[in-house]
Amino acid sequence: MLNEKVVALLNDQINKELYSAYLYLDMANYVGDLGLDGFAHWYELQAGEERDHALKIRKYLIENDEKVVLEAIAKPDKIFDGALSVLEAGYEHEQYVTSLIHDIYDVAIDTKDWRTAQFLDWFVKEQLEEEESARDLITKYKLFANDGAGLYELNKELGKR
Ligand code: FEO
């Protein structure tokens, strides 16, 4: 049996991960509307990864005989102003998710829930990668997307993810 507070936070994190999936789909829609199909493809796959994160936590709760509680998923409410703003919002969001994972980790440690701490290690590492790839998109955009040809190539590259 896991600590009650940890279970509540993990359930909440399922919701946050599903919201992340929703947010990335919203981003895919936005960049798709701009004609950037490669960017849209990148965000569609990212949405799938977020869903996988939610399922990973769901599985962990079930394995521990804890109840999974699904709440309503909030409407994505980010306002975008061009492709770069989407990339920046993605990076900002990943930093936020990192803080959520760290908060759960803190509670797991405080309550001597070593099992959950070990489970969360995967997410701590994953967040490093998520932040890095989000930051990398911004760097590449600023470096290469200054003209139509650069943007075309970057869009093509992201379409290969
Ligand atoms: Fe599930 Fe992108 O953090």
Question: What percentage of residues falls in helices of 4 or more residues?
Answer: over 70%
Total of DSSP H or I helical runs spanning 4+ residues? 5
The gyration radius over C-alpha positions equals 17 Å
Give the SSE string: HHHHH
* Secondary-structure-derived class: mainly alpha
Q: Provide the β-strand percentage band.
A: under 5%
Q: Could you tell me which ligands this complex binds, including any ions or cofactors?
A: MU-OXO-diiron
CATH superfamily: Ferritin, core subunit, four-helix bundle
List the uncertain runs. none
Task: Give structural notes.
There is one protein chain. With 161 residues, the protein is mainly alpha-helical. It has a single domain, classed as Ferritin, core subunit, four-helix bundle (Ferritin, Up-down Bundle). Helices cover 79% and strands 0% of the residues. The chain contains five helices and no strands. The protein has helices at residues 4-33, 37-63, 83-110, 114-144, 148-158. Helix 2 (37-63) packs parallel to helix 5 and helix 3 (83-110) packs antiparallel against helix 4. The chain is elongated. The mean pLDDT is 97. Bound molecules: MU-OXO-diiron. The site of MU-OXO-diiron has 7 residues, from helix 1, helix 2 and helix 3. Residues 17, 20, 50, 53, 94, 97, 130 line the site of MU-OXO-diiron (FEO).
